[in-house]
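Subject: Protein record for review, amino acid sequence with backbone structure tokens
How to read it: Take the token row as a discrete description of the fold.
Enclosed: The protein record, placed directly beneath this head.
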Amino acid sequence: MQEITRLGTGRDSTPDPSTGLSRLPRRISCADPNRWIAEFGHEAEHVRPAARWLLRACGLPVAEAQPLLTAMGILYANALEHTASGLPSGAVRISLTQEPFSFRLAVTDNGPRPGEPLTFPTLAENPGPGTGRGLRRLSDLALYWEWDGCAGGPITVWGVFDRHFPPAR
């Protein structure tokens, strides 16, 4: 069972009548002690609190967490730009799972914008200036990346990232 708790405050922090808690950002707890989930708002300024949350969740120093932070920023920006997550009622769900030798970072959007054609995450063959480079950069950062979802619904883009361990003494 998942438990939802308020993570912080911000412009999007209007009370949710069903829980009495602020809507976003919010942390969603799960039974797996190696998995962390949170939802953040629909504006670019919400990326910063998401990065702070991710840094605390992974427990790595900033330099070692940089691939995770960069990938999260790319996926968050893509969700805001290309999906209903960027609309005023939108949200972005971020999940981090710690495996023995890797992290799995997943970012879920709110599905397509109303009236827009359906699109799915693909690597651009020849990205233009300022566009089409996000997933290419994700591909460079992650050991592996993929997406899950179906037409008309939310899409989750996820990547597997190497965990760096300090050298043995």
In short: Residues 64 and 167 are 13 Å apart (CA to CA). The chain is about 25% helix and 25% strand.
